[in-house]
Amino acid sequence: MDKQEVNEIARIARLALSDEEIEEFSSDLEDILSYFSVMDEAPTRDDFMLNPVMIENVMRDDEQYQVIDPEILRQSMKVFEGYVRGPRLS
Amino acid sequence: MSDKLSFEFLTRLNEKYKIFSQLINEEEFLKAEGRYHFHFSAKDNLCTIDFQSRAGSRILDGYTPPFDATAVRRLRISGGLLIGKTNMDEFGFGTFCTNSAYGVPRNPFDPDRSCGGSSGGAAATVALLDGHIALAVSTGGSISCPASFCGVIGITPTYGRVSRYGLIDYSNSLDKIGLICRSATDLRTYLPLISGPDSLDPTSCSQPILDLSSSRIKRIGIPKEAMEGISGEVEAAFRKAIEITEEQLSIKVEEVSMSSLRFALPAYYVLATSEASTNLARYCGMRFGIVKDDVNAHFNTFFSEVRSKFFGKEAKRRILLGTYCRRIGFRDRYYLKALSVRQIVKEEYLRIFQDFDLVVMPTMPFIAPRFSDIQKMKPLDMYKADFLTVPPNLVGMPHISLPCGYYHGIPIGFQLVAPHWEERRLLHFAECWESVFEYQFPEVKL
B303, A87 in Cβ contact below 8 A? Predict the structure, then answer.
């Protein structure tokens, strides 16, 4: 994987990498992806599941309940007048 | 049991072996003395209300969850005292427990060697503390590998057997909570305590009841492909263990073919890193652990700065790899192909289980390596070291690593795999194995 591609992937993943990191990851990912190509020899199936065992939907009674008080969760975030504060969008 | 453990002993043990990322404080320990039935630890990626839960990562520094993981809660209400959070590779990303922000645990048999990963602290604690029970987590071998390197028992139950509520996710379709302990008796006692449906984790709600009644083991298969690339010392110990199994336990062991094994490792890394790269998106400086002050920054800068500064190198590598595999145009080649491989490997196991009760192979291809040798390994070499532990993890089948030999005093393990929900076969074999093979534990000198 070339350095430009690593940079692009890092941007998508919200990682700001140093030049040294880009260089190192470029070489590592090239090795790893090259090794992954053995999967090209495996047959492609369309009857796979997303989980290794069958998972059934579990329904619960349609009643309100609270596992954790949101106020407790807000204690670990920046808040202003009861609202969670985050960075600027633009 | 409580009178055997002192706070001073635990502290000194941790200073020497770096097994805990956080130890119980003295006041709590003294308050609990004589009032608990057993002591246990939880891997640092399990949420605990009274300890930080940092999953070995700097990005979660300061995070103390407002709730206990279900497995932790179940052991507490059964009379267990949680004595610490065990050290681990960051988010489970590693084979040698060298990727933790909170120190590198030392192998109790030789402090210059790795404990194995990613539940390295958990396995080392069990090797050092008689009667200790460790809650551990496996995604691709993180219970079996350290159990093998530290000479203890590690069981990874069927995917969905133990609720994952309160587990800091690595890879949702692969993560499983299990136990590391010293004896089959411990397994029989503690596995039922943490198993069973939990409405807070839907994947645990489709399971049949855990049945640990006796199960006769007549035939075991060894995939011949699993024996390629095994070191001489591991192969010798493994062959000897098979000989004992046949001669003293009267179990037939035969070679089988499992050609899909060569696809399992890349499929695992594609699925695991794809899922990890989305799971780790939540760590962005707004919640959990590190919270950034500068809310006037643009979100791209805000998120990127905190993630770049506080994620370790292996976490970044796996985020990049997973993000790449999920890109438009690559999804079919990597993610969907890996799901196909999972189905193929599962079917191959099921075919073997028509004629065999268990599948066996060495747990790791080599004995616990020295840290100086690990430093020379490239990332791909480290990934390849997982080739024996990955297959049962990929398909969610229960498996157990048991000590099966020693090479100059360093433990070697073998790993047995059973069909989904058949943990009782593993337990039965472990009980039989203990009757013919004596485990060794390190002498603790502080």
Answer: yes
Q: How many CB atoms lie within 10 A of CB B1?
A: 13
Residue B199 annotated in active site = no
From residue B211, give the alpha-carbon distance in Å to each of A47, B75, B196, B207, B407: 30, 19, 11, 11, 36
Which one-letter DSSP state was computed for residue B335? Answer: I
What ipTM was estimated for this complex? 0.95
Q: Calculate what percentage of chain B has a pLDDT beyond 70.
A: 99
**Number of folded domains that form chain B:** 2
How does B77-102 read in b/e, with b if 16+ C-beta sit within 10 Å?
ebebbbbbbbbbbbbbbbbbbbbbbb
Q: Does B297 touch chain A (CB under 8 A)?
A: yes
Q: Which residues does chain B have within 8 Å of residue A10's beta carbon, measured at their own beta carbons?
A: 320
Mind listing the pLDDT tens digit for each residue in B72-119? 999 999 999 999 999 999 999 999 999 999 999 999 999 999 999 999
Please name the member of B63, B338, B396 whose beta carbon is closest to the beta carbon of A53.
Answer: B396
Residues in chain B: 446
**pTM beyond 0.90, yes or no:** yes
Q: Which residues 6+ apart lie within 8 Å of B309 measured at CB?
A: none
Q: B147 near B181, Cβ under 8 Å? A: no
Q: Which two tokens stand for residue A50?
A: 């997303």
Residue B446 located in a structural domain: no
Q: Which of residues 37-66 of B touch A (CB under 8 A)?
A: 63, 66
Note whether B342 contacts A: Cβ–Cβ < 8 A. Answer: yes
pLDDT at B328: 84
Considering the candidates B21, B57, B142, B204, report the single residue annotated as catalytic.
B142
* Residue B128 · residue B108 · CB < 8 Å: yes
**pLDDT number for residue B2:** 43
pLDDT at B103: 94
pLDDT one-digit tens code per residue, A16-41: 999 999 999 999 999 999 999 999 99
Name the domain boundary from B343, B369, B396. Answer: B343
Q: What pLDDT is attached to residue A66?
A: 87
Q: Give the end of a domain, one of B317, B343, B369.
A: B343
What is the number of other CB atoms lying within 10 angstroms of the CB of residue B33? 13
Which of A15, A72, A89 is most worth mutating to test chain B (most B CB atoms within 10 A of its CB)?
A: A15
Domain hosting residue B171, numbered range:
2-256+344-436
pLDDT at position A59: 84
Residue B387's nearest CA partner among A48, A38, A51, A45 is A38
